[in-house]
Recover the amino acids of this structure.
């Protein structure tokens, strides 16, 4: 894997303030490779954040309060060069397959070690864009 020439720009999307804080701290520790450009706690903020911040990678939780973010994934990707990396506590393989079909480049579960997530962000950024079957 080659190192990016500029830090990977990341939009964090999760409805938990604690998760957003923790992810922000984790990514801050990787400043030479990546940085958080925005945070969103719901679908509306996520859609606005993609347009406003033009991130390289969107780190997206599937369940945002009462919304399933996968229902909005095609809209999130429309007109964006961002890669979506799903970070979820949901262990259902069908949900993971749906995320991939809708255009997510990978799914990482919240139970996996932090290094797996960091490596997945770098990998997502370096992979060619894929927009799934919509």
């Amino acid at each position: 894997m080659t190192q990016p020439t500029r830090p990977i720009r990341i939009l964090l999307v999760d409805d938990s303030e604690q998760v957003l804080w923790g992810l922000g701290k984790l990514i801050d520790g990787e400043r030479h490779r990546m940085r958080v450009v925005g945070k969103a706690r719901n679908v509306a903020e996520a859609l606005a954040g993609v347009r406003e911040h033009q991130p390289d990678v969107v780190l997206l939780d599937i369940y945002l309060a009462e919304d399933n973010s996968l229902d909005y994934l095609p809209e999130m990707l429309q007109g964006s060069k961002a890669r979506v990396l799903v970070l979820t506590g949901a262990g259902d393989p069908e949900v993971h397959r749906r995320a991939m079909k809708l255009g997510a480049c990978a799914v990482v579960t919240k139970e996996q070690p932090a290094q797996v997530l960091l490596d997945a962000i770098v990998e997502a950024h370096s992979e060619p864009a894929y927009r799934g079957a919509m």
In short: The chain has a mean pLDDT of 89. The first strand starts at residue 8 and ends at 13. The domain at 8-126 is CATH 3.40.50.2300 (Rossmann fold).
